[in-house]
Amino acid sequence: MRTPNEVLGEKPSVHEGWSSVLEVAVREVFELMLGCRLTVPEAPSEEPLDITAMVGLAGQLCGVMSIQCSAKSSAIMASKMLGVDPDQIGPEVCDAFGEICNMVAGNFKNKIAGLGEGCMLSVPTVITGNDYSLHSVTDSPVLEVRLQFESGPLVISLQIHN
Amino acid sequence: MNSIRVLIVDDSSVMRKILERSLRQAGVELTSAFQAGNGAEALAVLAENQVDLILCDINMPVMDGLEFVKQLPGVENAKGAPVVMITTEGSESHVVQALSAGAKGYIRKPFTPEQVKDHVLPLLGVKA
After folding, report:
1. What is the pLDDT of residues B16-25, one digit of tens each?
2. How many domains does chain A have?
3. How confident is the model at residue B1 (pLDDT cuts 50, 70, 90)?
4. N or C: which end of chain A has fewer CB within 10 A?
5. Interface subset of B 50-109, CB within 8 angstroms of A
């Protein structure tokens, strides 16, 4: 299986600059809604990516936006959004993480000319656990941004179907 | 400012709580904070309860926010209650559609509590 960069390398001009737009979109959501700044990881993290949120895009851009992090990080994110202690966070962690993905997808498409009106978003889906594989029917390009939330990894991907 | 009754419509319960907290942080005293997960649930709430302000998402299952707002003129308990759309849909056409449907304000997600305050307070007759 090819890496995201290998697939992306085939069409360098189509999505040029989108990775940086995606990173800005993610950073804005965390700064405005959670009141925290994301950093760039200095080294690969051992923390598992055991929660995934996904939002589908359809219309002028078809694809899937996904965000992955650890369960611990997602609980902290939910606690920051709700203004409560992480110990008080229960089932609403999935709702909060899905909403973050939804806002990232919306913020991203609103920054790309023409996509704001021509691209619709699905309601978010959240997967807990990491024992799964995601398969696309085509070798579609993938944009990937790796950032750090507090001490944990945060991986944001946009798989582009057309 | 008199205390008000608000209806918050969003399919995310977390977002509903954030919006309620943002209103309280803005100094809005809430007598009641009704919540609904989509437009149909919101209409059911309005069948039983009068409100003074409605905050509403656009993308929701069952009945979306635009359809909900279009139905409000026939709802007695929503008469005079300004509607503010709060959504990830940020295009100009979405704003135009929302305002044409009867919304009085539009806030794009992500937002700050200050943006909620700046948009909502003037609609309640209070300087932001």
Report:
1. 999 999 999 9
2. 1
3. low
4. N
5. 59-61, 87-94, 108-109
* Domain boundaries, given as residue ranges, for chain B: 4-123
How many angstroms away from the CA of B31 is the closest CA of chain A?
21
Chain B interface includes A33 (CB < 8 A): yes
Test mutation, A67, A81, A125, chain B, max B CBs within 10 A: A81
Please judge whether B18 and A102 are an interchain contact, meaning their C-beta atoms are less than 8 angstroms apart.
Answer: no
End-to-end CA distance of chain A: 19
CATH number for the domain spanning A154: value is 3.40.1550.10
- Closest to A25 measured CA to CA, from B110, B91, B14: B110
CB contact under 8 A, B18 and A95: no
- Report yes or no: B45 and B72 within 8 Å, Cβ to Cβ: no
CATH number of B4-123: 3.40.50.2300
Counting one residue from chain A and one from chain B, the pairs whose CB atoms sit within 8 A come to: 65
Query: Alpha carbon of B4 to those of B21, B59, B74, B75: distances in Å?
Result: 14, 26, 21, 18
What pLDDT is recorded for position A75?
Answer: 96
